[in-house]
Design goal:
Blueprint lengths: L4 E7 L3 E8 L6 E4 L3 H13 L3 E8 L6 H18 L9 E8 L2 E8 L5 E5 L6 E2 L2 E2 L2 H13 L2 E8 L3 H20 L17
Parallel strand pairs: 3-4, 7-10
Antiparallel strand pairs: 1-2, 2-4, 5-6, 6-10, 8-9
Helix pairs in contact: 1-4, 2-3
Length: 197
């Protein structure tokens, strides 16, 4: 099987980001964005999705972490899209739940080339450590738009902000692993209309 990999670089006046993604990996991750909690969340998603990811980001963090996190979502989404090639042979749909202590999160994804994010979370503290929790939504919106994914993320319950967000990222990683996985019974793309998008 040809390895499903992609390398993406993005350079703007606000960020410089490069990433290498291997879909059929072992969960080997090296992430350095300068945003510690975000690095931890990306690592959690990739490890539990069995994706290999090497991502390096520099951003205008003297302003805040917004551009670094959002643009990392853009780059990772593009890497997913590119590594899927023509989307032939993939399962397309994936669903997973992940508990973390008192928190429980669910993710459902359709790699349909019709991007949409639906996110349902309880109110979170404004910050987890130094991380602005509004950036959870910004990251996943950027990712879904550039990956061509229809992604529904829901926190079923949870009170600790760290647990809630980490459960969400882990569930998303597992669901993306299912959806991007190859299914030998699928010839071409799995769609009643014979095409995606």
């Amino acid at each position: 099987m040809t390895p499903r990999t992609a390398e993406v670089k993005r350079t703007t006046r606000e960020t410089r980001i490069q990433a290498r993604l291997v879909l059929d990996g072992q969960g080997t991750v090296r992430v350095n964005t300068g945003v510690g909690f975000f690095d931890h969340m990306l690592t959690s998603a990739m490890v539990h999705g069995f994706f290999d990811l090497d991502l390096e980001a520099e951003g205008d963090r003297h302003v805040d972490d917004h551009h670094t996190v959002e643009d990392s979502g853009i780059v990772l989404g593009q890497a997913f899209r590119d590594s899927l090639g023509d989307y032939a042979g993939i399962r397309r749909f994936g669903s997973a739940s992940a508990p973390m202590d008192e928190a429980l999160a669910r993710a459902d994804v359709d790699l349909s080339r019709r991007p949409l994010l639906v996110l349902a979370m309880p109110p979170l503290p404004n910050k987890i450590g130094t991380f602005d929790t509004q950036l959870v939504e910004e990251f996943w919106r950027a990712f879904t738009l550039h990956a061509g994914a229809n992604l529904h993320l829901e926190v079923v319950r949870g009170s600790n902000g760290h647990h809630v967000v980490e459960a969400l990222f882990k569930a998303a990683g597992r669901a993306l692993d299912q959806a991007s996985g190859l299914e030998p019974r699928v010839q071409g793309v799995i769609s009643t209309k014979g095409a995606l998008g």
